[in-house]
Every structure is written in C-alpha cells, then in structure tokens.
Amino acid sequence: QVQLIESGGGLVQAGGFLRLSCVASAHTSGTYAMGWFRQAPGKEREFVAAVNWNGGTSAYADSVKGRFTISLGRANTITLQMSSLKPEDTAVYHCAAKPAVSHNYYTSIDDYPYWGQGTQVTVSS
User: Fold this and answer.
1) HEC sequence for the chain
2) Cβ atoms of residues 97 and 23 within 8 Å
3) Which of 6, 13, 55, 99 is 20 to 30 A from 20, alpha carbon to alpha carbon?
4) Overall average pLDDT of the 41-53 stretch
5) By the 8 A CB rule, do 37 and 97 touch?
6) Which residues of 12-37 are buried (b: 16+ CB within 10 A; e: fewer)?
7) Which residues make Cβ contacts (< 8 Å) with residue 39, sequence separation at least 6?
8) pLDDT tens-digit series, residues 66-124
C-alpha cells in the first residue's frame, strides 16, 4: 500500500506564494501517476493538477492554470508550486496516486486509489 504525506500548507496573503510537497512511500516516477485535489469547507473535492508517471504530461484546472505548477521532485516526491494566490484557493489540498498503466494523467477523483490526509492552505484577503 502507498502512503502519502503532504506538507507545506499555511496562511498567506492574497498574491502570495506557497510550495506544497507530497512524499510517497515505495514510489518511483515510472510507477505512479500523481495528482493534487482540494476541498473547501462545504464543497466537493475538486481537481487542481495532475502529472503522468514520468512527468512528461500534465494538466491543470482552469482556475489555477498559469499560477500553479505540478512537478516531480526528489525521489518519491511531487510538488505543487502556487503563486498569485487568491482567497478562493483556500482549501485542504490532497495528494493522490494511481498505479501507472499508461502514459496518461488523470483528473478524476475516482481514478485515484491512494490519498494523503491533506494540508491546509488559507489565503487571506
């Protein structure tokens, strides 16, 4: 079983920057597609960003495109760099992993069997 641990959340003012990290146990870039999702209070969990198993392709929600970047870090890690943060970005951010069976990335919650517990991001206005 894959264990995922997120870190890097915090409180920032609008326009600020945060870098989230997700560390996966027994993970290699050739094994898992990865994604970031977020959930605000009272709302459904929504797609933020995803990357395929080797980092060759990625996708972003329209609401974060141009501001957020998903990337592969050191062994068994992925990051989400968030710039120009807005109050509407406030949410718990979750890392997710899916065993790679193709070169695809995945944007649906239902595609991911492994989830981290989340890290809180709060953006003040």
Assistant:
1) CCCEEEECCEEEECCCCEEEEEEECCCCCCCEEEEEEEECCCCCCEEEEEECCCCCCEEECCCCCCCEEEEECCCCEEEEEECCCCHHHCEEEEEEEEECCCCCCCCCHHHCCEECCCEEEEEEC
2) no
3) 99
4) 95
5) no
6) beeebebebbbbbeebebeebbbbbb
7) 45, 46, 91, 92, 94, 118
8) 999 999 877 678 999 999 999 999 999 999 999 888 899 999 999 999 999 999 999 99
Which DSSP category does 63 fall into? Answer: T
Q: How confident is the model at residue 29 (pLDDT cuts 50, 70, 90)?
A: very low
**Taking a C-beta distance cutoff of 8 angstroms, is the pair 13, 28 a contact?**
no
Average pLDDT, the chain: 92
DSSP labels for 2-34? --EEEE--EEEETT--EEEEEEETT--TTTEEE
Query: What distance in Å separates the CA atoms of residue 116 and residue 96, rounded to the nearest whole number?
Result: 6
Name the token pair of 116: 């981290």
Q: What is the predicted pLDDT for the residue at 40?
A: 97
